[in-house]
Amino acid sequence: MADNDLDGAPGPFFFRHSARQILFGPGRFSELATIAEARSVERAVVVMDGAFIGGELEARVREVLGNLIGVEVHGVPIQEPDTETVEACRQVLEAAHPDMVVAVGGGSTMDTAKVARILLSNPGTVEEMAGFDRYYEPHRSVMVCVPTTAGTASEVSEMAVIGLIGSDIKLRYRSQNMTAQFAVLDPELLLTAPPAVTANTGFDALTHAIESYISRGANIMSDPYARDAIRRLVKWLPVAYREGGNLTARGHCHIGSMLAGVAFNSTQLGLAHAIAAPLGNIHHVVHGKANALALPAVIAYNEPELGEKGQVLADILGSATPADGVARIRAELDLDIGLDEIVTTDEERDTIVEAAMKSGNVPYSPRTPSIEHIRAIVAVMRSPIGASGPILEI
């Protein structure tokens, strides 16, 4: 697997790019007013994490926008988004007829707002309208995403994942017409994120970046985004975890997360996400922690097929192997746990393996897995591994 080979002729590539504007910098949150004024917005609905309702951030939103336009604030429950959450949000949007929808919060809130808004112009139930790369009629409102974590990159992602209420099924949505026209990245909004949130969301971002970089879908366009994301997150995520008030670290993590999202729009992801998904669906493991459980073993499994990119990763990580590097970062973030703390029976482990094998991310793995390979990866995940990479001989 070559890294930006300049010796031969460029090969064919596919790269998705949605028209959008990304505003980054401390204090950029206040530019919501500029966006509203430039687009002649009269009515806005702000969709926020429920934790912010009644607090300082809600007050800031109302202060920034309230003098210009009518503002309604809708709180989203603090949980993984599901069809019930999206339907409730859609009803609020339908009643308000907004010219602008502003999503303020983590990936769950942004995904909820993105799907609820696109359903305004695409009638049907939340479940009926799920689909990957289906056409959605665009909605006339301006969509603005303001992330308060550096992890999911939902602010630039064309995708959203919504749980089907009452089941373990995850519905996936993907469309360029669902993306935000404006992504406002203000690192000041990350300063109060607790260490555990910083670790979980940051490791999610690092997993996005690494899996995008080594994906079979990676190409000459996506590689620079993914590689720069890895560099920023490797250097600054441990700092942001230790020093929550470090604005420089928060800013680099914000940018790294966003860059990884731009990359995975085109590349898809890999086995770590394939395994993390059922851990979230079935055992309700926080997504970043699920990725942390899986990534070292997945990287060790893929190392024989990484070629030059494996060495680039090791160099960026400052380690003998890529698996050693991601294991060290996992330990630095206090995410070095074993799967046996969560999944306790062979039957449960088999369920994880079988669900992972069905993932749409499996074909993008650098090394093509069998179900026995995934079973071996899951076996390595059972125990903590410390700061050294796992031993995986397949």
Determine the N-to-C terminus distance: 19 Å
Top-tier CATH class of the largest domain: Mainly Alpha
Q: Under the CATH scheme, which architecture of the largest domain would be assigned?
A: Up-down Bundle
What do the pLDDT scores average to?
A: 91
- Write the element-wise H/E pattern from the N-terminal end onward: EHEHEHEHEEEEEHHHHHHHHH
Query: Rounded to an integer, what's the Rg over CA atoms?
Result: 20 Å
Number of strands: 9
- Residue share in helices? 40-55%
Q: So, the CATH homologous superfamily of the largest domain? A: Dehydroquinate synthase-like - alpha domain
Largest sheet: 6 strands, parallel
Count of DSSP-assigned helices:
13
User: Which secondary-structure class do the elements indicate?
Assistant: alpha/beta
- Ranges with pLDDT <50 over ≥5 residues? none
Going across the biggest sheet, name each strand in turn.
1-9-6-4-2-3
Strand content: 5-15%
Q: Domains counted in the coordinates: how many?
A: 2
Shape descriptor reads globular
Per the CATH scheme, the topology name of the largest domain is Dehydroquinate synthase-like, alpha domain
SSE blueprint:
Layout: E1 21-24, H1 32-38, E2 43-49, H2 56-66, E3 70-76, H3 83-96, E4 100-105, H4 107-120, E5 131-132, E6 142-147, E7 159-163, E8 170-174, E9 182-185, H5 195-214, H6 222-242, H7 247-267, H8 271-283, H9 287-302, H10 308-317, H11 322-332, H12 346-357, H13 371-380
Parallel strand pairs: 1-9, 2-3, 2-4, 4-6, 5-8, 6-9
Antiparallel strand pairs: 7-8
Helix pairs in contact: 3-4, 5-6, 5-7, 5-9, 6-7, 8-9, 8-12, 9-11, 9-13, 10-11, 12-13
